[in-house]
């Protein structure tokens, strides 16, 4: 199973061992002009019994893309609490495929961000997701690690 990562992607900053995000990853990010791509390679541990990426993994990935990616795009440096996350599963993503998404900020209010993304597996749309995310506390440098990492790699 190929585990290579497409050119230009760098491994996203890790989380404390044992928290949910550390169990799902690793994830990889690439700045694309003013935009951002986040991806991962489907491993056996991400799959259901028929060798396809589990829907829960895709939903978890979309949540991370929308919270982390939209935080990056909107330059918030804040923890974002998921209030609503809607997913439409479009197609399967097989073991070994590269899966990525580009978050899009739809709106930012005083307390909430609204975003969406399309998750693609080797060029095929597999999931459409949108959500609303409440600001969880004041700006915090812990939630700006992705911006610092990509700036270092530029």
Walk me through what this model shows.
Helix content is 22%, strand content 36%. By secondary structure, the protein is α+β, with helices and mostly antiparallel strands. The chain has a single domain, classed as Thiol Ester Dehydrase, Chain A. Strands 1, 2, 3, 4, 5, 6, 7 and 8 form an eight-stranded antiparallel β-sheet that branches. It is globular, with a radius of gyration of 15 Å. It starts with 9 loop residues before the first strand and ends with a helix. The mean pLDDT is 92. It holds the Pfam family 4HBT. Keywords: Hydrolase. This is Thioesterase domain-containing protein. It comes from Paracraurococcus ruber.
Name of the CATH first level: Alpha Beta
Radius of gyration: 15 Å
Q: Which CATH architecture is right?
A: Roll
Mean pLDDT: 92
The structural domain count equals 1
Reported by name, the CATH topology is Thiol Ester Dehydrase, Chain A
Topology as H/E string?
Answer: EHEEHEEEEEH
Q: What kind of sheet is the major sheet?
A: 8 strands, antiparallel
| CATH homologous superfamily annotation | Hotdog Thioesterase
In short:
With 154 residues, the protein is α+β, with helices and mostly antiparallel strands.
